[in-house]
């Protein structure tokens, strides 16, 4: 397999002495893993929807409030 890098990116890789092959392998593995996790999440949500039915406006509002609380807590403890 050959990989094309635009001239500017190729020059930057050379200039910094980056191990291009290892970086590419890592990036491809991470992207594959990310896509697999997204697919697994979508499959899980489909199973949940089949089991409990579609969400209601009330349940969505409740979930948004919980997420807001978690985010606020994280922001407070991260400071």
What does this 3D model show about the protein?
The chain is mostly helical and 79 residues long. It has one domain (7-78). The protein is 82% helix and 0% strand. The protein has helices at 7-16, 20-52, 57-78. The longest helix is centred in the middle third of the chain and has 33 residues, at 20-52. The protein is elongated and about 55 Å long. The chain starts with 6 loop residues before the first helix and ends with a helix. The mean pLDDT is 94.
What is this structure, in a nutshell?
The protein is mainly α and 79 residues long. It has helices spanning 7-16, 20-52, 57-78.
- Biggest sheet record: none
Multimer state: single chain
* Element-by-element helix/strand order: HHH
Roughly how many Å is the radius of gyration?
Answer: 21 Å
Shape: elongated
């Amino acid at each position: 397999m050959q990989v094309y890098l635009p001239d500017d990116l190729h020059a930057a890789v050379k200039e910094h002495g980056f191990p291009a092959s290892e970086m590419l392998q890592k990036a491809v593995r991470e992207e594959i893993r990310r896509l697999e996790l997204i697919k697994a999440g979508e499959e899980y949500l489909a199973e949940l929807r089949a089991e409990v039915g579609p969400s209601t406006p009330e349940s969505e509002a409740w979930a948004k409030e919980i997420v807001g609380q978690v985010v606020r807590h994280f922001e407070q403890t991260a400071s």
